[in-house]
Amino acid sequence: MSAHQDIVATLDDAARFAHEVPQFDTQGSLTLNDAYAIQSASIQRRIGRGEQRVGVKMGFTSRAKMVQMGLSDVIWGRLTDAMQIEEGSDVPRARFVHPRVEPEIAFLLKKPLSGRVTGAEALAAVEAIAPALEVIDSRYKDFKFTLPEVIADNASSSGFVVGGWHAPTLDFRNLGLVMRIDGRAVQAGSTAALLGDPLRSLVAAARVSAAAGEPLQAGWIVLAGGATPAEWIHAGQHIALQMQGLGSASFQMV
Ligand code: OOG
Ligand code: MG
Fold first, then answer.
1. CATH 3.20.20.80: does it fit domain 2-253?
2. FRET pair for 173, CA 20 to 30 Å: which of 16, 17, 141, 183?
3. What InterPro entries does the entry give (predicted)?
């Protein structure tokens, strides 16, 4: 692992100071285990600076995202409190390298959820669901990367906005959604794009988190993944997600 300390520092600094870095593994010599170890170590640096772990994000859980990025394995990343953007707030463009936004659904857990669980067990651990926008911001030049590289870069996670929480009594398997930039609809889709049922993304999150020795905790947030391709965003734009039955989530880039 120590051989990768320089990569850990490079990626963490790039995220912290919002500058791009070259790809470091175009030959594909990094294993997925190495990549997750780098991710873990870079999050440890954040924790060391006082950030707190608040959950997990899932990636490439929709065909739309797999096709857009040219990768087809489900990945995951770690969320900290510093990544959360207050609903409706102003977000400085300067915080990012080359941000994109995508529509997601978020789960808030009321119980720990660990290992191989059924959909029913996962649902029983959900306190609430909400529409969410994820701001992804790959630290790699031109937003281009291999699978191990994006995993090492914490699955491009950079920011996320969660709208109002709702009890999970509503059937959320196929909720229509529209993402708007400055009022113009730029992406439309459904929560069904997420593995056929977003709950499957939560089931996967429980499995991979436990395997990493960090089981999902009560109070954590799980982002189920982008339901449509992501859109580039720029200073001055207002970004909003409307989700059937669950209201909206939005922010303003300044
Ligand atoms: C990787 C992150 C993928 C999602 O929701 O599928 C992701 C990327 O697209 O840069 O967050
Ligand atoms: Mg995402």
1. no
2. 183
3. Fumarylacetoacetase-like_C (IPR011234), Fumarylacetoacetase_C_sf (IPR036663), Hydratase-Decarb/MhpD_sf (IPR050772)
